[in-house]
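Whiteboard transcription, Tuesday session. T.W. wrote the structure tokens on the left side:
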């Protein structure tokens, strides 16, 4: 059976589980062919291992091109052929010498070297090459350091600085995925290519969660980021989640936790900041420089209250992107409920008062901070009530937390939020209460399991009326 993996420029890297192609018969590849020249797709190649073979468009799930593209005389022809031979969604795995390395030009048969921008015309600017049916999407861009780069990394230099140091990087590894263009995408590409030089499409985004090593709190946005990525997929695109900024490549990043960046870190000019922080004077005072970042980039905002604040503070490019539902977030498996009330998040004095009142009434309360993912989900699964309280008196509704709970059919008691745009959509599916009566509301529902289950089921039905893909579509296509 013919393999579904193609090894281009196989040379001495002959792979038994691949179809091997090389322009030099000395290496005894399966097929002798030069992909730097237009390929005759009607030709039948006689192979020793597989018999007669035709290189049929869309035949291969994977193409490997390791240390090859720097030798190819006509790279556009080669990349066009590889795109043609790949199946939709297929992966092209590439390694090439980095342009500041010794290896880039020590070999006299090299005709080019590569850097981070070398992939732009095969991805976002595909229209320039006349590609109308499909394009590549950059899924991974990584660097292999030289001995110098390894030493600089050991000394504590950031990779961003190492990459700029001559002879510090030997090789660049790239993973490209074949994406088919929709009819609308082809129309937009034609119009945009003349006007702006860029074609809008749903494959050009990624979701970057800023993830400093010294804090786990960036995991608080994991579910929102996952939901956003799933929404792009439901809209027909791909927006992978990355934590290492080197993986952004030519994509346009939607940035979560931008407030965790240090003051010297710069965002790409086209970056979108997805703000999940409350826009109040105390918060902004605790996040020096954050407001200036917001003013310098397009901002997606989950709260209409925050959106009004951003306008008053002079943030020019603002879009509303609410938090909603994707079925992929239904992941909490029910367990025996031995926790009466669960609260997770940072405690302050106003939150502590309610928790203390519940404990004094004999309620089994668990308060968790810095707990995320499966560990937090295990606590949620064991809880009769999950309590949501505001941290600040400004009382912006914590839809980030509540949407995930409702998608998993959990019963929520929540403090009301004046002017909250989500409350009317969720009313009947969340037990809303004023701050003063939160503890009493919890005690009342602890005695009524049937009512808790009915409200939780209604909450699930309500959150499903807010599909995340609709919210993302509105953010993408409405005027800021």
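and on the right, the sequence the group agreed on:
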């Amino acid at each position: 059976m013919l393999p579904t993996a193609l090894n281009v420029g196989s040379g001495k890297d002959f792979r038994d589980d691949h179809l091997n192609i090389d322009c030099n018969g000395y290496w005894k590849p399966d097929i002798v062919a030069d992909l730097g020249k237009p390929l005759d797709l009607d030709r039948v190649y006689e192979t020793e291992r597989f018999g007669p073979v035709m290189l049929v468009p869309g035949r291969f799930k994977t193409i490997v091109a390791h240390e090859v593209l720097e030798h190819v005389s006509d790279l556009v022809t080669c990349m066009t052929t590889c795109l043609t031979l790949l199946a939709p969604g297929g992966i092209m795995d590439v390694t090439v010498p980095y342009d500041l390395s010794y290896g880039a030009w020590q070999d006299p048969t090299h005709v080019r070297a590569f850097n981070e921008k070398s992939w732009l015309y095969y991805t976002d600017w595909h229209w320039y090459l006349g590609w109308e049916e499909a394009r590549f999407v950059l899924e991974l861009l990584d660097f292999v350091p030289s001995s110098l780069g390894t030493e600089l990394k050991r000394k504590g230099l950031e990779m961003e600085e190492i990459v700029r140091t001559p002879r510090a990087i030997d090789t660049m590894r790239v993973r490209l995925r074949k994406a088919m263009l929709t009819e609308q995408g082809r129309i937009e590409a034609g119009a945009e290519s003349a006007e702006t030089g860029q074609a809008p499409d749903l494959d050009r985004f990624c979701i970057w969660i800023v993830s400093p090593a010294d804090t786990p709190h960036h995991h608080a946005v994991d579910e929102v980021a996952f939901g956003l990525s799933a929404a792009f997929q439901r809209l027909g695109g791909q927006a992978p989640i990355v934590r290492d900024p080197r993986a952004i490549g030519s994509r346009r990043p939607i940035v979560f936790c931008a407030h965790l960046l240090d003051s010297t870190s710069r965002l790409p000019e086209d970056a979108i900041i997805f703000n999940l922080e409350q826009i109040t004077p105390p918060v902004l005072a605790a996040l020096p420089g954050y407001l200036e970042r917001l003013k310098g980039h397009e901002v997606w905002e989950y709260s209409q209250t925050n959106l009004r604040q951003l306008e008053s503070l002079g943030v020019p490019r603002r879009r509303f992107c609410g938090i909603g539902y994707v079925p992929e977030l239904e992941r909490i498996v029910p367990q025996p409920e031995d926790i009466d009330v669960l609260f997770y998040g940072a405690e302050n004095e106003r939150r502590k008062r309610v928790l203390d009142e519940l404990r004094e009434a004999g309620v089994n309360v668990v308060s968790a901070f810095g707990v995320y993912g499966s560990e937090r989900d295990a606590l949620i699964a064991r809880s009769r009530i999950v309590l949501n309280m505001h941290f600040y008196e400004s009382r912006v509704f914590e839809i980030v937390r509540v949407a995930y709970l409702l998608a998993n059919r959990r019963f929520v008691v929540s403090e009301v939020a004046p002017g909250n745009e989500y409350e009317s959509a969720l009313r009947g599916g969340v037990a809303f209460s004023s701050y003063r009566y939160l503890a009493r509301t919890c005690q009342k529902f602890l005695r009524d399991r049937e009512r808790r289950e009915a409200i939780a089921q209604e909450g699930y039905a309500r959150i499903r009326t807010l599909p995340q893909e609709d919210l993302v579509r509105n953010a993408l296509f409405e005027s800021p």
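Someone added at the bottom: The radius of gyration is 27 Å.
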